[in-house]
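Record 1 of the preview.
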Amino acid sequence: MSGIFDFPTTTKPGLFIAGTDLAIGKTVIGCAIADVLTRYQAKVGVLKPFDTQATKDRGNLVSSDAQALAHFAQLDPEIGSLSMVAPIAHQRKLDPALELMMDNQPFDASLIARSLSAMDQRCDIVLVEGIGGIMTPIDPARPHITTVDLARELGYPVIVVTKSDRGSLSQAASTVFALRSQGCFVAGLVVNFYRPDHPDNSMQLTREFLARMNRLPILATVPEVSNRDSVNVAAGHLHDEVRAAVALADWRRIAKSPQPVFSNPHSSDPVDNFGRGSQISYLPPG
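->
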């Protein structure tokens, strides 16, 4: 059965890395997971379908996030170039739908499908990084199509990267709710920029409440590193504390073979795309 994007059938286990907002650290977490998996001799495929912070180098758009992901995954160059890791790249730091609209370009899902097929055929595990928050629009012709649709049709377990400061509870719960309402399986949370030495215990309480509120495990608690240059993944730097925190989870077990969920691919009704006719509950039973 085809869906909105008509992606190829895939079989290798994978993970979809979602975030509650921009600049939440999805790429750093993706790099750290890739780094851990390669230490277990896994052949890791990495895919960041959209990158809206690419830079120009000799007339070509270069994605530093794609470079970082490929570096820590030790991606085999025979699988493809960096354009295979970040197939849709722009410069303006806008949502993908707006980037495409300003460049007068259509959304071309076949670019993502090509990368996905190559990664699935040549790798043991596939990591896919989303863009922005889960409701970020990606198609200028269909404003209701967002990152959550991408996650749903890829069908990998989703991990949600969040913080544990003020506002994080609502953002995380909204993200988890949107994913679950679309049939996505949320495997757990990664708490990033955590400060164990926070002057009060609000961060610890928030972290604990994140798990209780969403009925999800905290898969990793990643500390905020004072020297930000030491986690400059674009330069190949991954702080030992970040690596150690992420390594505590068994990502080989958490990654699963895809189970895509399809909606009506011909509907332009955003209500249809947000679960009309299905039961949507804030928390899963049990």
